[in-house]
Amino acid sequence: MESWCFINYMMFYFVNIQVTKLKTLSPHRDLVDAPCAYASYCGGCKTQNLSYEAQLRAKEQQVRELVIHVGKFSDKNPDFECIMKPIVPCDVQFHYRNKMEFSFGTQKWLPKELLHEKLDGIDNYALGLHAPGYFDKILNVDKCLLQSEPANKILATVQDNWKDPELGLSPYNVHSHTGFLKHLVLRTGRDMKTDLPELMVNFVTSSYKPEMLKPLVEKISAIPEVVSIMNNVNTSVGNTSVGEEEYTLYGKSTITESLRGLTFQISANSFFQTNTHQAEVLYKLIEDCAGLRGDASEIVLDLFCGTGTIGLTLAKKAKHVYGYEVVAQAVADAHRNAKLNGISNTTFLQGDLNKIDENFGKHFPKPDIVISDPNRPGMHMKLIKFLLKLKAPKIVYVSCNPATCARDIDYLCHGVMEQNIKGCYKLKSIQPVDMFPHTPHIECVCLLELC
């Protein structure tokens, strides 16, 4: 039974399976009423109708199954229960996202019972989230329970005005590649002096026509929390919200947020942990796993460092932090954040960690601690081979995908027999963290020590 459940879970995890509920025969004991009106249709909060306790149990079980079956760690080992830590819940289960991206579209998604309605022109326009399984249909959203209340005020203001024929605004058509408005990105930060929320609004458009956006800018800027209105211009036919050019339409070009006692400036395209509240918890776990002595004697290598948030929070106890990141803008943000916080013992370098060669490692001393926080595909085999050769005393692996995390710690601990690669690490702990309630996503913090 266990193997069957695991196989089905893995199929669900890696394959985009679309399922439609036909009828509820009897309610499950963990079923709850989803507070969001869009929960039945939107793909953002797939488990909102499941009690939070049940969500946590399911996530913890997923990690456990992957560690056993993919990571090849036996639950019969007496140490396994000490290694596998219980999931850390999120105290804030709604309004926790500091960034939401909504899309404009020419085709409004409708539930099956309303498909008979014929919508044309402006009536078919939508601003919201992509309906699951559709790249060209948008579920119109007036309010999202995951973002802050000020962000919902902005969304409502845009919804009330953008389709006004007198403004002449058109949503981007992904089929004909015509139209003006592509995305609306809302970011919530915090004023460091008043501790009040500050909001950035980013319009992503297909061309630069500030006069077209002026009426919306005037209405949005009247909302007290709005301190920045940006315009990213993306002329490509792709669906990205990052523009080739960026303009400030109102206020300043960045907002600020605090994390682990440090201040971070966040630009329209900066990466920043999406759940600030739970990021405090996550980074404390990372710091505890790193176990820096605090005497400024240790070298930290921060792989996939992004805008430097993890490395900068560790720098106060380290001799030096070396960070690597492929995105040039993120590296620039890391330098800026270091300067903003008066931190001088960090070096951030641009580099693709999937394409390292024999020269990688010559630009920094041997680290005492490696922090690795890859994206969902995990670490490339080239990097794993490098780490096995480097033999740093400690690796803290931070993962947003427990499947690739289990695979990588298997390689680091057990090696790869087919490639004659020997592992040299021991898994000391794996800590699941719920960063995103009501979604299937799970964060893990793993501690590996050199055998």
From TrEMBL:
Stored PROSITE patterns: SAM_MT_RNA_M5U, TRMA_2
One GO molecular-function entry: S-adenosylmethionine-dependent methyltransferase activity
One of the GO biological process terms: RNA processing
Active site: 400
Binding site for S-adenosyl-L-methionine: 273, 304, 325, 373
InterPro entries registered for this protein in UniProt: MeTrfase_TrmA_CS, SAM-dependent_MTases_sf, U5_MeTrfase_fam
Taxonomic superkingdom: Eukaryota
Entry similarity comment: Belongs to the class I-like SAM-binding methyltransferase superfamily. RNA M5U methyltransferase family.
Protein name (database record): TRAM domain-containing protein
Species name: Gossypium raimondii (Peruvian cotton)
